[in-house]
Amino acid sequence: MEVIKIMSNTILIFIVIILIFDYLFERILDILNASRWSNEVPDELKGIYDSEKYKKSQEYHKANNKFSFITSTVSFILIIIVLLTGGFKFLDNFLRQYTENPIILALLFFGILGLASDLIMTPFSVYDTFVIEQKFVFNTTTPKTFILDKLKTWLLVLIIGGGLLALFITIYNFFQQNFWWIAWIVLTIVSVFFTMFYSEIIVPLFNKQTPLENGELRDEIERFANKAGFKLKNIYVIDGSKRSKKANAYFTGLGTKKRIVLYDTLINEHTKEELVAVLAHEIGHYKKKHTLKNMIFSVFETGLMLFILSLFIGKPEMSLAIADIPSLHIGLLVFGILYSPLSLIIGIITNVISRKYEYEADKYAGVNYNPEHLILALKNLSVNNLSNLNPHPFYVFIHYSHPTLLQRIKELKKI
Asked: pTM here?
């Protein structure tokens, strides 16, 4: 018993060290990024940003950086306080007065933690949406939409998140140490299902998607799609302007469920040629099988995580690090924190692969359509979104899933 107590105390120390490291590491990255800010337009950005727009983009990122520092510091302090004062232990003991059912106990435990965390952070979300985004003329979210989004998100977390947690615990209770590969199969099926049907099931709860209407733009898109040998039935326009003036486009789904989605804000701000170039980029992702490759990578990542979890989840010292009684839900919480350094490394690898895929999709669009139109689209998109076009290289390496605009332009000019 003494050995278990020593091990649990050691695990608690590791948890605190990991949380401190994560916090300080992100602050160092923010400082490095801030070191790239300047009052004058850098030479490499001249011709992309004019001085007024560049100044506005700097102000926007300074505001977001300050806001991120405040929110992350509040979150860090809260979790450290809860850990060191036995908050998790108190909640677990309190809930055990009413139930010992492992599924109900886990659902209540994570439900209360999630709800409390979300309620604490809601004022910050309100400030971000209705002050910062409003100040820089991006926000179009109404209070009604904000509240409805929050309620819908809670409902989805309750149904999907709660359902998956209950299923996971059931699998564990039935199969014990062999649970990991069965859970892996189940989660893979769920992942494939949502990749296929996300736009048909989840998106409509928040946004309206309408088929791109007939006209010059659709004709030009269909001409390119036919030329590229891409069977394009599903081109949708999403009402992104319901929440923000920022623009985007994305490719989703597999097989007959694949679709390309354009934000209405994108259509309003770009020429027909630029839009076809953006769409050609999205088709490039499909042609290069990036969605499928990302899914395969994600499946193996999930399998690795579950296998490592199976090695530790049954050890009582995992739970006893922050609670009085060994239990699966406490073990999952502890494992989630201890796994974060490996998760960071996997995230970096994922971003490296993602940036490679973006170059490939850019090249496809440049070769098969027009590199200049794509360059112009990327420039306008970046400037309209007040993107940071001069981030620190290390920050890009850690966090960016896309290459910077200058990197993309440089590669497109080689075509």
From this structure: 0.91
